[in-house]
Amino acid sequence: MKRITTIFTLILVVALMGVSCKDKASKKIVADNVESAVSRDASDKMVPVMTFEKNEHDFGTIQRGTPQETVFTFTNTGNAPLIITNAKSSCGCTVPNPPKDPIAPGETGELLVKFNGSGQNQVTKTITVNANTAKGSEILRIKAFVQAPGTVPAGPVK
């Protein structure tokens, strides 16, 4: 009885597969959909690319509490307008100020970063820039050796 049930089930499955696969896939293609897919794919290739002159800035040795600033200059080397949606730092002591307007292809922009000089010894902070690029975000770094006020710079004694 089990054999008959198993054989009958297999015959039924094969018959259903034979009936359901009669339509050819090429007959289901709509020409209008193909044209819209081609134009959509062409527009997807148009993306901005953020190319920075430098990804890291070293302030060197600074006194604690001394505000510092640097500018990260970048160029849109892509073929679509670059829009920076957000720029945030790894802590509140570093404040990035990105451009608000879109950057056209081939144009340059500046990202001002302010650091309040807090911390002690070697300090490294990161800035994450979110934009409409293929990667979606870029990481920038600032670093400094922060000394307490009134201390002598470390180094060899003459």
Can you characterise this structure?
There is one protein chain. This protein is of the alpha+beta class. It has helices at residues 2-20, 31-44, and strands at 50-52, 56-63, 68-76, 84-89, 94-97, 108-115, 121-131, 137-147. It contains 2 helices and 8 strands; from the N terminus they run ααββββββββ. A 4-stranded antiparallel sheet has the order 1-3-6-5, with no helix packed on it. A 4-stranded mixed sheet has the order 2-8-7-4, with no helix packed on it.
Question: Helix-strand pattern, N to C?
Answer: HHEEEEEEEE
Number of helices: 2
In percent terms, what proportion of residues is strand?
Answer: 35-45%
- The percent of residues in helical segments reads 10-25%
| Radius of gyration over all CA atoms, rounded | 30 Å
Low-confidence stretches: none
Strand order across the largest sheet? 1-3-6-5
Biggest sheet: strands, sense, closure?
Answer: 4 strands, antiparallel
Cα separation of the termini: 101 Å
What is the number of strand segments? Answer: 8
- Which of globular, elongated, flat, extended, rod-shaped describes the shape? elongated
Pfam family, one: DUF1573
Protein name: DUF1573 domain-containing protein
